[in-house]
Structure formats: C-alpha cells, structure tokens
Fold this sequence. Notes:
The structure holds 2 protein chains of 2 kinds. Chain A has helices at residues 2-26, 34-37, 61-70, and strands spanning 43-45, 48-50, 80-85, 98-103, 109-117, 132-134, 147-151, 159-161, 169-177, 193-199. By secondary structure, chain A is α+β, with helices and mostly antiparallel strands. Chain A has one domain (41-199): Domain of unknown function DUF1214, C-terminal domain (Jelly Rolls), CATH 2.60.120. The longest helix of chain A is centred in the N-terminal third of the chain and has 25 residues, at 2-26. In chain B, the strands form 2 sheets. Chain B has a 5-stranded antiparallel sheet, sandwiched between helices. A 4-stranded mixed sheet of chain B has the order 7-6-3-9. By secondary structure, chain B is an alpha+beta fold. Chain B folds into 2 domains: 1-39; 44-190, Immunoglobulin-like (Sandwich). The chains are: A alpha+beta, B alpha+beta.
Amino acid sequence: MLHTLKMLVIAVAGLWLGLAGTYYAVERGEDGGVGTSFLFGAVKAGPWTGWPKSGTRDADPYARALYARNGETPLGITEGLSFLARADSSGAPLNPACDYVLSGAIPPARFWTLSAATPHGKPLPTSSNRNGFTSSELLRSADGGFEIQISASARPGNWLQVNGGQPFLLMLRLYDTALSANAYSVVAQAMPSIVKEHCR
Amino acid sequence: MRLKDPVGNAAFHTLPWIVGCLFIAGVVHIGSIFAMPRLAPQDAFARISTLAQPHKVVLLPATTPESGAPFDDPALAQGVCRYDLSQGPVRLRATLPPDALMLISFHARHGQIFYSMTDRSATHGKLDVLLVTRQQLDAVEANDPEDELPQDLRIIAPTQEGFLLFRALAEYPGELADARDRIQSLSCGLDKDAKP
Lengths: 200, 196
C-alpha cells in the first residue's frame, strides 16, 4: 500500500518536473525570453545571437516547439537571418534609462533593418510610432561609416527611439544575405557593436 | 524480505525513487517538446486560419505594439496564401518590380519551413511556382510535353495544408502602403490548368 502510494507520488512528481521543464523551455520569461536561450544551434557574435537553422527543414525540436507555442514565423534561410541583442557589447543588459551607440560593420546583405522591441518581441511603443530603421534610411558619414543613436530623447542623425521606462531588446535582420545557414561563424567583428553612453 | 542497508542511511532507499522520478520527467519533457508543434493551439497556422480563406492572397494586419506575431519586423508588410492541396495543386504567379525586396516562404501545417525564396529567384521579374503533393507531381509530369523543359518551379509540400507567407519591405516608413500593394498584386490559388 505504502509502496503504491510512493510510486504514485513519484509518477506525479516526474510528470510535473517534465512539464515544468517544457514550460520553462518554450515560455518566454519576463526578462525577455528564457526560452530562446535554450535553443540549440545558436550563433553568437558579440552581443548578438542568431538561430540560422530555425528557418530550415532541420529546425531543432526546441525551436519548433517554441515557434508553435508563440505563433512566430521565423525567416526562411533564403530570406535572411535575424539576430537579437539583450545586452550591450560589454555584456551588461540593455538599460532603458541609458543611451547607446550602435556602430561598426554590418554583414553584407541586400537590405537590413534594426528595430527595438519589447522583451516579448512586440515593436516597442514610442511617442513617434517609429521603432525601427532600414538600411535605406541610414545616413552615412563621408568615410562610409555610420552611427545609430539609441535613446529615449531626440538625437541628430540616425536616431532609434526607445521608450525611457520600458525594457527593450534590439533586433538586426539581414535580408537576402550572403551569410547562409552553413556560414555559422559570424565573426564578432562583422557585427555592429553596442556601446553604452551616459545614463539618466 | 528487505534488503540490508549497508550504508545505514536514507539515501539507500530514496536513490532509486529519485532516479525513477527523473526518468519519468525526462520522458515527459522530451515527449511534450516533440508533441508541441502538433498540439499548440495558437501556432502560426491557427492564427492565419482565422484571418484568411484558402487559395487567395490575404494581407495580415500591420506589425504594431498591439497586433502581429512576436518578433515580426515592423518594416515589412505581410500577406499569406493558405493552401489545401486535397483540392488540387496551387499556383503562385507574380510579376515583381526590380530591386524591391519580396520574401516568400512555404510553411507546412506544423510550422516547418520547407522552401523559401526572394524576388531574386524570379526570372525577368516573373515568378511561376506550382505547389503539389508527390502524387500530383507525378500526374503533372505525365502531362508534360516531352521535348521541352517545364517553365515553372515545382515544389512538393510535406503536408496537404499549410500557407505561403509573403513579406515585402517598406524601405521608408511612408512606403508601407506600396509594400502592401506589391503583396496584393501576387496571384495565388488553385491551378486552373491542372486536372483534379
């Protein structure tokens, strides 16, 4: 009798543990996505992380479960690659009270976009209703370089508005890029850096 | 009869139970991860099914803080064409303007992307794609003239149902309406030439 009861308790505990693990893996947490950090096949380059395999036939089971749970439609591998940053180049989490400068190289792509999103991946609500930037809009300096100011208050030049009070993450999407699923090693130098300026 | 407890502590008795519990947890975890694409009630196909009838191009709502799927790009206009191959092959035809980014991906029922392309896959700005099942492909090929190559791109879908997702880039914020027009100019529906 005691034995059966013990077995039942173990079975229920095992079931609960297993489902809790699944929940933890596919439910994006408040900090901006516990789930994604568990996916296999992540490519890290500086502050950026991408999942090039998620848009192929070889997407891993965790990626498939996560996308099914959230109703997401990742980019197919021929369409492009997307990268996500939750921290700056020093590794500190992006702080909505701080200004950042994004600069450096962007891997070759026909078009790219940079946008600010909430930790759950929704476009960040801003007073200007603008929360993204396309490669066509970018103003370059005379030497071909560029800087994008990420700030809650207006900046001259390339300004990506964020919302002072709301946590955000950055998404860089490379469309029609020469980087393929096989080019797994996106070197950190080829991706733009995100450097913290002053904080309020 | 009870086994002798050589260590004389509780660990000897509880260890097998812990191992058993972890084993069950592992099986449940892996099983539920693999089952998720089939069981998730709010996957992309479910979302799109409520918005779009099969075999026509339907624009999706703009990506704003209030609407759209997570991690979508607000600079893209999006449209879908649901397919149900049990009714016959589906044809996608498009005339695409040069140098305007159009992304096309083919999604199976349970989230798998089985093909993707951009406007650069078009020859002289024209795109002609036939989406078929394996059996339908055999029937189509049987009707092909023997002395010429087929002019369309034929893609086998792994599931009978699914959707095509079209994404057009608005290079500047004011061009979102143009991007939506480019999606609406696509033609997607049951193939009229094909015999059922």
